[in-house]
Amino acid sequence: MTPVITAFEASPDRGRGLARDMRVRWALEEVGQPYEVRLVSFAAMKEPAHKAVHPFGQIPTYEEGELALFETGAIVLHVAERHPGLLPEDRDARARAVMWMFAAVNTIEAPIVERSNAVLTERDQPWHAERLPILDARVDARLGDLSRRLGDADWLDGAFSAADVMMVTVLRRLEGSGLLETYPNLMAYIARGEARPAYQRAFADQYAVFADAQPTG
Q1: Do 101 and 76 meet the contact criterion of CB atoms below 8 Å apart?
Q2: Confidence (pTM)
Q3: b/e for 89-108, b at 16 or more Cβ within 10 A?
Q4: Which contiguous run of DSSP H or E holds residue 69?
Q5: Is 153 helix (H, G, I), strand (E, B) or coil?
Q6: Half-sphere exposure (CA, 13 Å, Cβ side) for 151?
Q7: Average pLDDT per run of 10 along the chain, which is 217 residues long?
Q8: Which residues contact 209 (CB under 8 A, 6 or more apart)?
Q9: Are 69 and 78 in contact (CB under 8 A)?
């Protein structure tokens, strides 16, 4: 059965590949699993029909037969467990890949999202100028730790895995912040992910939603 994922009908990222459905699209492309996309509006995301699948009214969701999932980490892990190519065969290496998936969404993404939300919603507040450097420092501390651990390796732990799908997409949320440029190995890491054909197919499909919504003439 072909899985169905949900995505923004009008993504606030304006086609930059930053919306979280990008992670799921990329994982599905990596394993060669066809999928369908159901676009939802911001209003529809808060309606009972969508919240029956995602109780917090967000995207993406994943439906395959009787199975319905939300949370990108859970969805990508499910895809990786169902199909070869995104998790190592070795038991210990597989455990480490899952560990890095958790690290991406918990340890790395949390301060990045806090910073992004502050930039979007607090820039007009009198405390913003003082608070932003604090948030930047928290993100930078995580980036420094990650950069030192990655070193000159191509991927987080041996071969490319679902962990890299999650980490690359999390780091891309810092695009335009100026924080990544201090770490050339992280920039190169992101570029390696973006160069993968599966990533490029996923990005093109997500961008097409934005492009199709633009007025013509």
Answers
A1: yes
A2: 0.94
A3: eeeeebebbbebbebbbeeb
A4: strand 67-70
A5: coil
A6: 4
A7: 94 87 98 97 95 96 97 98 97 98 97 87 78 91 98 98 98 94 97 98 93 73
A8: 7, 8, 9, 11, 15, 37, 39
A9: yes
Enter the DSSP assignment of 3: -
Grouping H, G, I as helix, E, B as strand and the rest as coil, residue 62 is: strand
Residues in the chain: 217
Q: How far apart are CA 179 and CA 55, in angstroms?
A: 33
Q: Which of 82, 42, 79 is nearest to 202 (CA)?
A: 79
**Residue that has been written with the tokens 């995602």 in this structure:** 54
pLDDT of residue 217: 59
Rounded to 10 degrees, the C-alpha dihedral 136/137/142/145 comes to 140
Instruction: Report d(CA 11, CA 206) in Å as an integer.
Output: 9
Please give the Cα distance from 159 to 21 (Å, whole number): 23
